[in-house]
């Protein structure tokens, strides 16, 4: 005979106002198997918990029902209390008589009757419960960081400095990401390269960071603590161990007029190139689509010039495997390709981006003002190299536009546009910057002051309104827009137009997210587990996110989030074994018919196809088996199973039927 | 190919030359146009500024007629007409109650007749068909393709071509052997019906269009809307007098150019009825 204790909480007046807790106790005490029923004003308080602990010992209870608030609130609290009293925590159940009863029902009699029913259900379940033990999984104490931008760099350095090994994968030839291409950063105007490149060097030289550049994550296997990562190292045609980074090869390369990716098409590079002089690793790569040797088997100058013999035209993609315990996704962003069709958006033909050479996007402008840029930091417009005397900046190109763009705010454009006007004024003293904006969003430490400085000290003209059309006449860009505060149309003859294009997630991030079972929103930004309380976790255990891959954000925020992700990784890696909830699926291998419907339906790829063999290795049967490291206990397999071999521990069909029966 | 034909008030009135050209051109292309029997006004600007229901009921009536007369594709050469017909269709597709109410008001159920403006009609005939039918290529002719405001807008209603940088008319013109010049005022407003309320506005806007076309080397402007033609052709001498310039810019309906390339005479196409004499 079961020995169940029922503890009914008043929740101050939250429950007792509507539910007659005394009558509840009288009624449930009569249920078969219930040894004691008690009510108390605050069951979650220290005296309340003590009461539960004492009763468990005194009455030798083998099951407990607490009738109180939602299990989301205090299930863990009460299970911990039960455990200290020596009861298996999974022998305690909650009957939610607050959210499901007292808060939503006005009638006292009806609410009381319902509370009694809810407790009856819980008692029926707990009678069918059996003790469960937490699952322990081993941990590979290394982390993978995908993406070598400022967020990835911060996360990798934090984890490595804490003593764990880090594998960093970056798909470009160098780490540094978008920040390496920026000029100066708001709100302090400190030089982007000066603050970033030392961090890049730290990554390159860190004894615990293994760097794979020009590489991508090909496949992911395994689960928290035990990920197996396959990395594709793209053929670089340069042996990075032999190469000294002297640069003789790119100086000698005859094919110099290729658009530089790093300069966003505003500058050129040779076929064998380092993306920028401060690249980490400081090793070149050959563009196989351009190189004369690789495309036509002519030339070969770089190999002749290379004293170290590092050039290898026979190089091929390599697949390498790495084992890690946790993963940080820091894949960053790209700018909306203005005017190009991209999913639902294809607007802004009116700005003539791609048609007029002097209409550029904000990242291109960063290269124009950057000391390391194609013009060495002199602001010259792309069409004829003249210094622009009137520059128009248009914000929200693609952002906050339900009609033909994206509904969200890209968050950083107001700030960098203000910065652009300042940098421009500091370099072209007789120039005039004009900004068309919808709203100025400058929330942040010293941010609004910064925008005011752009307007008040550096004289940027701000027009609240949109631009309707840009046309070209006699070498000038005719920008027609509205000043909605003055209520007049505005026409500006500009020499250069800079479009603050919307931030979008980097290419390929959704495919990567699918490999890791990480969610993403309709725009492709990675989904956090909880927007407030679990901002860097994902719904896949052991996978964390940071930076602009999660949502548009600036450098300080990306760095802060990266450190947060790194600290979560350290928590995961700190334990030698990971404890997971045992409330997951189990499969009865004796009755499993090996149809593998569960294998097909499992959203977490937690079902394995296994074979049962005798000691001599003779195949007895094939069966589905649950990977306890991966299973999230969703129960999809249970509903898919035709032979009723799948069940969820702590929520078995037997337990649920018992609950239903108790009501009939 | 058989297509339904909704002339609207313009093509039966002030822009009778447009109808003449359209019929001759499509006839030469082997497309027969069957005029909708008993059609009524599309509502144009007047209806939708005064009464939303009226602005949907009027096109709905025409769509219902098309449905009753078994017309699956309906050419509405006036860009205002085609836009109003499509707008009504879209509004009814989105709102079942409205569609039902309109069915009651017009005493018939409008169906999903495919409405085509002139650009879409040529697209439907097919560039290859047009190219193959060309007898006298318009070599050395530089054309400014003028789309105006309604041929591509609102984009969610028209759903054809890029509303800001359209190319569909340019493609037709190129198929005829002519050159479509790159210019700035492809989709600017000509002033349309403002001529009644404020002629100055129309003169100013249309002048800018003529000036930009001329500045970019166009010898003529192609239009696909009766209202654009009125403002650029009929008002051209007034514009020239007012701004002290001389353009003499021939304004063609797009079907004029197609017709010429197919070997039809300007007289057959009614080009001799335009205000600005044809020089190129």
Q: Give, in spatial order, the strands making up the sheet with the most strands of chain B.
A: 2-1-3-4
How many domains of chain A? The number is 5
Kindly report the oligomeric state of this protein.
heterodimer
CA-based gyration radius of chain B: 18 Å
What does this 3D model show about the protein?
The complex is a heterodimer of chains A (664) and B (280). In chain A, helix 2 (46-59) packs across helix 3, helix 5 packs antiparallel against helix 18 (653-663) and helix 6 packs parallel to helix 15. Helices cover 28% and strands 25% of the residues of chain A. Chain A has 664 residues and is an alpha/beta fold. Chain A has five domains: 4-128, Rossmann fold; 135-233 and 512-576, FAD/NAD(P)-binding domain (3-Layer(bba) Sandwich); 235-316, no CATH class; 333-504, FAD/NAD(P)-binding domain, CATH 3.50.50.60; 585-648, Alpha-Beta Plaits (2-Layer Sandwich). With 280 residues, chain B is an alpha/beta fold. Chain B has two domains: 2-118, Glutathione S-transferase Yfyf (Class Pi), Chain A, domain 2, CATH 1.20.1050.140; 133-273, Rossmann fold (3-Layer(aba) Sandwich). Chain B is built from 15 helices and eight strands. In chain B, the strands form two sheets. Chain B has a four-stranded parallel β-sheet, sandwiched between helices. A four-stranded parallel β-sheet of chain B has the order 6-5-7-8, with helices on both faces. In chain B, helix 2 runs parallel beside helix 14 and helix 3 packs across helix 4. The mean pLDDT of chain B is 94.
